[in-house]
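Hi F.,

I've been meaning to write this up properly since the lab meeting, where we talked about keeping a consistent format for the predictions we share between groups. The idea is simple: the sequence comes first, exactly as it goes in, then the structure tokens exactly as they come out, then a line or two of notes. No screenshots and no reformatting. I'm using this chain as the first example so we have something concrete to point to.
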Amino acid sequence: MTIGPLLSKTLLPARAELQPCPEALKPALIAASAIAAGTIFLDPFAIAIAIPDLRLALGLPFAGAQWLLILHPLLLAAGLILGIGLGQAYGRWRMLSLGLAVGGVAALIAGLAPGSEFVVAARALQGMAAAVALPATLALIAVNLPKAERARTVERWSLGAAATVAAGIVLTSLLVWLWSWRGAFLLEAVLAFGCLVLMRLRVPIDFPELIEPRLDLVGAVLFALAGALVAFALTISSAGVGVGVVVSFLVAGLVGFGLFALWETTMATVPMVATDVFASIRFLVATGLAVLAHLGLAGCLLLVPIAVIDGGAGSPLATAAVYLAFLAGLMGSNRLTEPTEDRIGPAAAVAAGYALAAGALLGLSAAVASGRVWLAAVPTALLLGIGIGVAVAILLRRALESTPVRHRAAAAAGQNVVFRLAGALSLALIGAVAGFAYRDVVVELAPSVASVFHGRDFAAPVNPLPELLSIRATAIRLTFARVGVLGACGLGLASVIALFALPQESGQSATGPQVRNGRSR
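Output, unedited:
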């Protein structure tokens, strides 16, 4: 074990599962890992807050704005398993440092970009960098600390990552409000480079496992291409493109996923996803329910800034308040999950969580539509976070418990990949629905001037008369309300399915004695 500047003077030792970290360096190790992970988790919220100002400044169409949000989770999902393999082969410290450096440079390029094409390219680079860095954040802790310390350390890591996200949301909203959309990207660059300096000076280097990289490059490329084709089909569907073109890209994407599945099951020597994991019906049901809710929710949440800012309901600070309330609900749900599951059983607990989330999303949509962000949208966002937190925590744990212990790490990685993909496709799907809904709302509100607006693009009319701007703002808020109804329907459907598809017994007796938070139950 050595510190960054001494790396070149050190010979690599034999492979070791644990390389103890000096006590004095543990705070820096936890802080760097938490800030790095928090920066990656912050990204979708920060860029979503910046989107309204970015579109106005660069003249970016709505479909282009969607891709700024889609590229990051899509490429993160495609490269996540590759990142795990690279960390094992070349060391977690090196991969985390590489990911932070590349991600920081990409954020800097985006923040200083003269045009939208540079921002789009930088977003793709950020997604790939995140795929390399994210697996290394927790893996670096695991290799540096003994098992007895890991549970407590992971809790501290989670709190540190959540604090980074919360502080980043507030700072981003202030930078965008007081300055420009560029502040969102430059803040990410500062976080990445600051973390990189901390890594270099105070975080021990782990030595790689001295194995050849086990990378499924073909699988990653097929996965990314298939996801991109499906997302592209959805994003162009609301831009006035012919149905035949949309269907062609959609079919091509589905064929791509079929080829990916064929490759993973029959030809890949090192599969990107452990296919044995998906043989468990309980794993598929639990993971599928979580993905179903995520498909409707992720896109709705990331459209909040457009609805609030472009809809004239509030400033970037109001959007930040909604996001912070949602995150507070997620964090606070940890204290409710176990008691709820033990009292009424996993099926009823998940169903209740999703039902609460569905009602809260309807309330959030209505609050934004009426312009009452601080008084109504913030409290409902808190309830939305609580409902989602309770349901998803139970589903993910149940899914992992249904797999053999030796496959649980692969199962967790597979879940992460699927969730990232679902988030990307949700942005494309909800965005497409919003495009169609906006056109209909404009026609309903002002049929005589509907042709003045830019079709389904949410853009301001060429003639900025106050009456036209007011119609546009109202139409955007009502569009979000309709999209929120769709997301709530997805959550409601997940609630009903959970009630009948999951086991009814209490969490304490479902699979015999369990270990939660280090305590045997």
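Notes:
Residues 150 and 397 are 18 Å apart (CA to CA).
The first strand starts at residue 2 and ends at 3.

If this format works for you, I'll send the rest the same way.

G.
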